[in-house]
Amino acid sequence: MATGRTHRPATRSRGIPEATVARLPLYLRALTALSERSVPTVSSEELAAAAGVNSAKLRKDFSYLGSYGTRGVGYDVEYLVYQISRELGLTQDWPVVIVGIGNLGAALANYGGFASRGFRVAALIDADPSMAGKPVAGIAVQHTDELEKIISDNGVSIGVIATPAGAAQQVCERLVAAGVTSILNFAPTVLTVPDGVDVRKVDLSIELQILAFHEQRKAGEEAAQDAAQADATAPAPPPIRANRGSSDGGAGRSSAGADATASAGSRAASAGTRAPSGSTRAASGAAARDNKGPDGDVPAVMPA
């Protein structure tokens, strides 16, 4: 089997977009699961659902590989596994060094998925002298003083950095100077590399922060929905009535007073009509005396 030094994947020379390259491992994982279940063919819709993409995008991605499937049948699973593996460079052996054998580095060294996908852990390297010679995942840890020699002897072109953030840039520079051209960075920092060196960053805390953002947004949406639902099901409020003890009461009393005044005026007017005043009665008496007859008791003119 060839090593990583003798061959580089041809994805860039064939003009495959980076977004498509990033999705190829997703397709390969889904196809590998189908292959293990002895599924011979798969439709674009089924494979797209398993990979978490839409079927139109999947068909477009596969067209870059020259694979178009068969109408009414779908894609041949084993052939697609081979096509994608070849395009990703997984049909050969890729020796990898892991620098920084703390908890994370040790966990990576023990991960069995590397070997099954064509990545052989060639060496484990750490700056702590007390770690030198200790076996981790069946491999003896070596000191960073030997980094350049290890890379040269094993033909390493892929390095994994699992050091603290403060040491990551220096380790990166040493890896690049020794000939490493691809780096997987687990350190929580941004690395500066020259042209021609590819860096992939994995920051678990950032991924968790993104998930926390989505959880907070979902919680806010649920709270808003619950509030809207509660408003929709709540009984209608009673109509607003006048407060008798406040200004409306004063207005009521004023109205009552006005009514009483008007009523008194009406009674006075009525009384004036019914009972003439003293002057009126005197005038009436004088007129009556003037109208007496010769006898003084009987009017000169009798009513008809």
Automatic annotation (TrEMBL):
InterPro entries referenced in this protein's UniProt entry, alphabetically: CoA-bd, NAD(P)-bd_dom_sf, Rex_actinobacterial-type, Rex_DNA-bd_C_dom, Tscrpt_rep_Rex, WH-like_DNA-bd_sf, WH_DNA-bd_sf
Location in the cell: Cytoplasm
DNA-binding region: 26-65
Biased composition (Low complexity): 225-234, 253-288
Origin: domain of life: Bacteria
One GO cellular component term: cytoplasm
Binding site for NAD(+): 100-105
Function: Modulates transcription in response to changes in cellular NADH/NAD(+) redox state.
Name this polypeptide is given: Redox-sensing transcriptional repressor Rex
Species the sequence originates in: Streptomyces zagrosensis
